[in-house]
Amino acid sequence: MQNSLNRMTVEHIHYLLKQSEGISLEFKECKTALNRNVYETICAFLNRAGGEILLGVKDNGIVTGVDTDKIEQIKKDFATTINNPEKINPTYYLDIQKFKIEDKYILYIYVPASLEVHRCNNRIFDRNNDSDIDITNNNFLVSNLYNRKQKESTENTIYPHVTIHDFNSAVIENARILAVHHRKDHPWNNMTDAELLKSSGFYKTDLNTGQEGYTLGGILLCGNDDVILSALPYYKTDAILRRINLDRYDDRDIVQTNLLDSYKRLMAFIAKWLPDPFYLNEKQQRISLRDQVFREAISNSLIHREYLNAYPAKLIIEQNQVIIENANKAHTHGVINPSNFSPFPKNPLIAKFFREIGWADELGSGVRNMFKYTKEYSAGSDPQLIEDDVFTTIIPLDERLSVGITPQATPQATPQATPQATPQATPQATPQVLTELLEFCIIPKTRIEMQEFMGISDRKYFRESILRPLIQQSKLHLTIPDKPTSSKQKYYSINIT
């Protein structure tokens, strides 16, 4: 099984081919070599709001294809040129993906919005409708572009007194492992912690003031907890279960840690209280509907939050819905329609970091996937995404998912899971359930998270009968292999067979 549920899909390519070129979509014929003006489009997308490029497609969306024997050379030429500061300055790491459509190959490039102003061949390009406009000599438009970049995101706020020692090295290592699993040749594998943060754009120099240092985005992603709370004293996400005690709560987790661990804690809170009905995808493979829905909803609430706003973020599980709220710098107002909305990144570098480790989809496709899987999860109901100064996501729950507090999640149920009963209550010993555990561990999990996932309370039994054999068979790996008993130890799977 592939360890990435987040890769761009053929379905999304077909969706793009049905659209018209516009401010965030460009088609280019590319039979044997890259068009010269593809880099002007990349520059314009970087400077505007990002976009998607399909190579091997006519302006009207008809697929002409790229010569098969030229694809690898095109990809090599692209990698060399995109990292050449004489072509794109500042340089920006991008990748090309190959897809087979109508028995022909096309190439796909996703370009996120950048926080910097970029030049192509020492010219500044901006996007207007479906055109790349050279605005180099238009002082008014160039000034507006610089102003727009400064106002688009607060993740770029510089903290000059923060050093590399203020970051959690275990969190950075976890991100490095996830990125390499997502893509084996990922450059983070050979970078130091400082190099990884800098390459991700989390070390900046303010050209106006000369101030330089690590940024808020990097601190939020990988900083030590005390540093995060020193930078943002009001920062937290309040996870609440409110089904029986509607005035207060039935369970609560106040999450005040780095974004990567915040994501895992919030996903664990969802897994603790919401069931995951059996579901087979189009390939007749079992996937977690619950994770497909809430992975996108939770990652969006962390990625696109306005962190300089003191509004407390919330995740509330109610009897018939889940509500997620976070402060927002609104780009539009009202209910989002996935069929015609224009995605706009609020914190592009944080979003890119989440995509690098496989925890977020490309901008736009993630929202469409959320709608797709919520229909399956909630018996035909759509989620609601409402953009305003507070961004609200509402996931409906039908009767199957609204059964109240489940017995296996309550302390009262723990005594029932005695060691004597474990062998009779161990579906986890079957190949199918072990496969499900390995799928669950594509994202590294703690022993406790794995036990909760399998409903096993006996730690000794789990270690000796489940965990140790999987490690010995090289089906599970340690995130800190040189310290197997570390309190920060987690376990992950690569190939699931």
CATH class of the largest domain: Alpha Beta
Order of strands, main sheet, comes to 13-12-14-15-18-17-16
> What is the molecular shape?
globular
Largest sheet: 7 strands, mixed
Rounded to an integer in angstroms, the radius of gyration calculated over CA atoms is 23 Å
Number of helices: 15
Strand content: 15-25%
- Proportion of residues in helical segments: 25-40%
Poorly predicted ranges (pLDDT <50, ≥5 residues)?
1-7, 406-428
Mean pLDDT: 84
Structural domains: how many: 4
* Cα distance spanning the termini: 7 Å
Number of strands: 20
- CATH fold description of the largest domain: Heat Shock Protein 90
Q: How does the helix and strand content classify structurally? A: alpha+beta
- CATH architecture label of the largest domain: 2-Layer Sandwich
Describe the protein in words.
The chain is 33% helix and 17% strand. With 497 residues, the chain is α+β, with helices and mostly antiparallel strands. Strands 13-12-14-15-18-17-16 form a seven-stranded mixed sheet, with helices on one face. It has a four-stranded mixed sheet with strand order 1-2-5-4, sandwiched between helices. β10 and β11 form a beta hairpin. It is globular, with a radius of gyration of 23 Å. The protein starts with 9 loop residues before the first helix and ends in a 5-residue tail after the last strand. Residues 1-7 and 406-428 have low confidence and may be disordered.
